[in-house]
Amino acid sequence: MNEFSNMLDTVRRPRILIRAARAGVAEYRRSRDLKRLLKSAGPSTQSAVSSLLAEEFRLEAIRVAGEATYSVQRHVAVLTALIAEARNLPVETRMAA
Fold this sequence. Notes:
Elements: H1 3-10, H2 15-24, H3 30-38, H4 45-65, H5 72-87, H6 91-94
Helix pairs in contact: 2-5, 3-5, 4-5
């Protein structure tokens, strides 16, 4: 398996976060949401997934630590974008070679 598949397969989050993110995928608009989340509207899908994974891992560390700076809204937005972008990855990037 490749790097993205391995990382996505290891992501385990509370069910309510995943359900909220999946519900948001229907309203996801790449140009609007990536611009807000990554400050860039036009990165490649692989670049976007990589950046979103890094941000999601950062948010998860903040959540687990119980820090007051944790934003559930941002976490759901990043997970939503990550799910939507991962669906747009080429099949060979998502699956084992």
